[in-house]
Amino acid sequence: MSEMLEKARKYEFIQGQQIKEEERPAFHITPYVGWMNDPNGFSYYKGEYHLFYQYNPYSTHWDSMHWGHVVSKDLLHWNYVPTALAPDEDYDKFGCFSGSAIELEDGRQLLMYTSVNQEKLEDGTVRDIQTQAVAVGDGKDYEKYDKNPVLTAKDLPKGASKVDFRDPKIWKGNDGNFYCVIGSRPADGSGQILLYRSKNGFEWEFVSILAKNQNRYGKMWECPDFFELDGKYVLLTSPQDMLPEGLEFHNGNGTLCIIGELDTETHTLKEQFCQGVDYGIDYYAMQTLLAPDGRRIMIAWMQNWDTLAYRCNDSGWFAQMSLPRELSVKNGRLYQVPIRELNAMRANKVEYNNVVIKDTRLTLDQIEGRTVDLELVIRPADKDNLYKKFELCFAENEKYHSTLCFRPDESVLKIDRKFSGSERALVHQSSCLVNGDSNELKLRVILDKFSVEVFINDGEQVMSAVILTKQEAKGISFFADGAAKLDIVKYDLL
With contact defined as beta carbons under 8 Å apart, do 242 and 253 qualify? Predict the structure, then answer.
């Protein structure tokens, strides 16, 4: 073990114990201490789910990227494992950036990550050089390969940048080879996804440019993932510097899902459908795994690079992961629902049916809380007289609240956290154009202390947001402009 890795492990062991369990979310992953961003190495290994993450144990701000590590039996209750990787080699001394994990035939776990060094240019400026490296281990301790890095600038296609070459996602192909996709930036300054192949996970060769952005969706495409699902091929990536397209994509760092067919001769993705992955405020850098039972499960960094000032400044940790989601493809769209394991945490069921609310705000007995699974069906009380607006208010008291607002005439659902307690003028609203029939809207709203995730119409769309409101604000209320009829089922999540 290197001195740098040993230092990180000792530091987190001492400092992480200072953070009380009640100061963390109930079932969302947070760093043991310090800073967290992208999920890495989301995998199933030796009977447990493993998740690594971009990690700076020494501060709640980004710096000196390590790999943190947690394990779980059920994807909801996670145990911390000592830091897996530290930037302790010449080729990665400026950071062990994002990557993935897979089990080798000999039973060891292979980690593949972006190793970052720097070079000084003739004009005196310094820039990052990104390469790919691997490490192998037993689920706790990992040793870096003595021939790292395994992919460098010489392995790039013509015109591709060695500065933006990152985030390998690895899998085992049906032909017995290992494959990985890596985010890249071609000469046009846009983004592209590169495909590589290896017989053993250590020696890699370039195969193709799997997909090209061509300046359509933002610029650099980060954190790619590629898999087959329900007879289609799915490419997930997180574009930087996006421009909005209606309510499908928002400004800044966003999410992108491309669904299509794979041309097996050219190893290129033939695009058929395109969409955002999450329509809320906080969701980035998705990564998936194939569970032992065949489910494709996705997790992401539930944060936004443009809203980092929205934080609890007295907390010893910063940022969290999303709730893991089960994926499917239906009618050319990516559907997402909470993992079924969450149902085992449900308790204290409260149900109301056919509640009519008209031009007023309503609270209902036992409908409150900050760790809650809430199912709603909203319909017009009179089908011939559509209500103008429905509003769900949560994390509410006399001072704070956040809202979901639906206008059926526009078919637009908006999340708004501007009254959640933030003192910063950041992004606090996001809107989604809801597909389907405005005469019935189905919502499943998952609250976990510091977040809300809204699953719309059985997972056809999702909206996620961090909510840092004080925990004593636990009220939930409903409002309708006009007359709406509600079915409500609420569970505490224990």
Answer: yes
Q: What is the pLDDT of residue 314?
A: 86
Is 359 catalytic? The answer is no
| Per-residue b or e along 468-494, where b marks 16 or more CB atoms closer than 10 Å to that residue's CB | bbeeebbbbbbbbebbbbbbbbbbbbe
Tokens of 373: 């699974």
For residue 391, give the 3-state DSSP assignment. Answer: strand
- Range list of β-strands (E), 249-340: 256-263, 268-275, 284-290, 296-301, 317-318, 325-330, 333-338
CA–CA gap between residue 109 and residue 49 (Å, rounded): 12
pLDDT (tens digit per residue) in 59-106 = 999 999 999 999 999 999 999 999 999 999 999 999 999 999 999 999
Cα–Cα distance, 10 to 192 (Å, whole number): 40
Tokens 């032992």 belong to which residue? 292
Handedness of CA 92, 287, 301, 85 (dihedral sign): negative
CA distance 99 to 115: 10
Say how far apart CA 473 and CA 74 lie, in whole Å: 29
What's the pLDDT tens digit per position in 475-492? 999 999 999 999 999 999
Residue with tokens 């060094």: 117
Q: Residue for token digits 């400044």?
A: 313
pLDDT tens figures, 219-257: 999 999 999 999 999 999 999 999 999 999 999 999 999
Spatial distance between the Cα atoms of 5 and 151, rounded to a whole number of angstroms: 24
C-alpha to C-alpha distance for 363 and 55, rounded to whole angstroms: 41
Beta bridge partners of 235: 226, 258
In degrees rounded to 5, what are phi and psi of residue 434? Answer: -80, 130
Which amino acid does the sequence have at 295? R
**Residue spans of beta strands (DSSP E) within 449-474:** 451-456, 461-466
CB 184 within 8 A of CB 153: no
State the DSSP H helix or E strand holding residue 3, giving kind and residue range, or none if neither. Answer: helix 3-16
Q: Which of 38, 88, 164, 282 is catalytic?
A: 38
**Virtual torsion, Cα 340, 346, 349, 351, nearest 10 deg:** -40
Taking the mean position of all CA atoms in its chain, how far away is CA 229?
Answer: 19
Q: Do the Cβ atoms of 152 and 168 come closer than 8 Å?
A: no
pLDDT-derived band at 276 (thresholds 50, 70, 90) equals: very high
